[in-house]
Amino acid sequence: MSTIEVPRAEFLEVATEPRPPRRRRVKRKTVNTIIWFVVLFAITAVILYPLVWLVFSTFKPSSEFGQNPGLIPDNPTVDNYVKVLEGIGGTPLWRFFANSLFIALMAVIGTLFSSALAAYAFARIKFKGAGVLFAAMIGTLLLPFHVIIIPQYIIFNRLELVDTYWPLILPKFLATEAFFVFLIVQFIRNIPRDMDEAARIDGAGHLRIFFSIILPLIKPALITSAIFTFIWTWNDFLGPLLYVNSPEQYPLPIALRLYNDATSTSDYGATVAVSFLALLPILIFFIVFQRFLVDGVATQGLKG
Amino acid sequence: MFNIRKRRVVAAAAALTASAALVLTGCSGGGSEAAAEYDPDEKVTLNLAFWGNDVRAAMYEEAIAAFNEEYPNITVNSSFLNFPEFWEKRQTEAAGGGLPDVMQFDYSYLRQYSENGLLLDLSPYLGDIIDTEPLSENILDIGVVGDETTGIPTSTNAWGLYTNPKLLDQLGVEEFEGGDWADYDAWMKEITDAAAAQGVTIWGGTDYTGRIQNFELQQRAKGEDLFTEDGEPNFTEEDLAEFWESGSGIREEGTVIDQQRLEEIYPLSAFDSALTASELTWDNFGAGYLGNLGEGYTELGLVAPPVTEEGAKDLYLKPSMLHSISAKTDHPEAAATLVNFLVNSPEAGAAFGTNRGIPASETMLEGAELDPLGEQIREYEESISDRLGDAPPVPIVGYGSLEEKFRLIGQELAYGTLTVDEAVDQFFGELDVVLNE
């Protein structure tokens, strides 16, 4: 309350005292700014607290969890990192990072390639059954993943592709990510047809139009899709859980739970340390690409 | 740690039921013909799945290395996950027909998987590939569902009362000397009061009426298991109301730790965090407690739970885990050979110690070097032999979700958001759902 009253008091002063008001007004503005910053900073601190807690907790010894819920470790130690860097069950830590990175990159490539092609077909080519197929594609958006788990597992099990990365990567190359297909379709529909008609008159076929005209124009949509695919795949837990058997093939989200065992001891220190490390790549990825992300999302709303 | 596990179980149980028909059509011929021996020259690859953490994974690696010295032609591909994920994956595999050849198995899932025909009947291998000599009859009986043996217990545990000697010492309270539930309540109150006098926030224990095992214990003292052999409930609404009512005193007086505090330290328990001086639980939780309590703790107290009825056989040995084989395995003989090794061999005992509980098999126990805690648990299980009765029938399908419901209702009672009567209604409602599924 007192912080709010300060500018008011000054305002009254301004009104009563015959001083040049300009300097006063500037000062009042600064005070306002400071208040805003304090408030914003407080809100940010509240929102960021869990993350900060995670970072500080990585320096707590395992036994301190539960006894010291506070931010600052009583007995700071780097043992958690030492333990985590040793790897899990004979597999070095970098291996899990490499696995995650491989799956995520393949998923990005697959999704961009297949979704863009499918979207072009839906948006620009008139073919029989286009409407039905488009509705079916939108329909898959409504299917909860849990409905398809078992049929999908049976298919991949029969194909003997379980315990490989194929079940995680192959669908991405087959434009099964309806969300991104839809996103790109909408984007292409907003691009004026004049340009591809001009190209058509110059003798370009669909492939040429796609690669030379549409693809450069849908870059913002592609970047959005790439970022989301990367983040989702990086964090995906259920897919790898079902299809990957060998511990040395596990991606990070599974690996970082291996320090916990609900039925015996759980190493919480190692868990938070490895969670924090697993967070870093995606944080860096986001910081680097966030400008494009905002661009991409912003242009979605504009008419082409 | 339990609610994640159970929520997923409920979801996955639906999936499993839906697919049981699919699976049943696939396997009709069990192991009725005479068991063949594994031919040691045959090259075989087996998948082995277990739950546990990195520590247990290293132990399995050691055991498998020892196994391969004896059977170099069996390649074992092992895979491990945390407990909830382990079962989530198994449920999908069960539906899709891809269960691993050999699995570490949990008692609460044994009936469900056995009745769906997903597990191999081991009877033909008993006394042949699987040595039954070192396993006692009542331990082998634990893995029997219907008339098939689908699991062999690796180890056993029993319900017990863990106490924190350091806290007791600090507060100047004697170890619990045994007695009935009222004595236990009084002892807990003594601790809570002593702590209050010293100005520290320590409680005597956790509200024991939140755990179904304590209800089971009191029912067994009357000579009744929670469920009959056919899976029918064996207790009345009055029994349950009386049980929950019995905890109202310690809840209202603040003898036991309050629910809000428990939520704050979750997933650790109050006993893990040295906030309570006692906990009624399975005796194999000791190592976990020591680990979570951290340095400064080298020992725990372990005594028998309060007595409901003098001379009653209310306690029993429960398998901490079993080994089972998938009904669809291509190499049942080799798989049985591996199970025998993991259950009976001294080498496996040496590798695991007491990590999976006190070894059930005498030969495995011989190979196991017991740490002080392991030795304490073994002595504890011997000391309660007068109170040990027959194990209850294999848990009903859906027992896991009932156990979880019981725990959640216990929380609500602790918060005071449910009356005992409402709680009983809710539990019997859930029971109806589970039984009629």
Automatic annotation (TrEMBL), chain A:
InterPro entries: MetI-like, MetI-like_sf
Domain called ABC transmembrane type-1: residue spans: 97-289
Swiss-Prot/TrEMBL keywords: Cell membrane, Membrane, Transmembrane, Transmembrane helix, Transport
Biological process terms in GO annotation: transmembrane transport
Subcellular location as annotated: Cell membrane
Transmembrane segments: 33-56, 101-123, 130-156, 168-188, 209-234, 268-289
Keyword Zinc-finger: no
Source organism, top-level taxon: Bacteria
Gene Ontology, cellular component aspect: plasma membrane
Membrane topology of the entry: Multi-pass membrane protein
Family that this chain belongs to: Belongs to the binding-protein-dependent transport system permease family.
Protein name stated in the entry: Carbohydrate ABC transporter permease
From TrEMBL, chain B:
Entry keyword set: Signal
InterPro entries, per the entry: Bact_solute-bd_prot1 (IPR050490), SBP (IPR006059)
Keyword Signal: yes
Residues making up the signal peptide according to the UniProt record: 1-23
Residue ranges the record marks as coiled coil: none
Cell division as UniProt keyword: no
Designated name of the protein: Extracellular solute-binding protein
Source organism phylogeny: Bacteria, Bacillati, Actinomycetota, Actinomycetes, Micrococcales
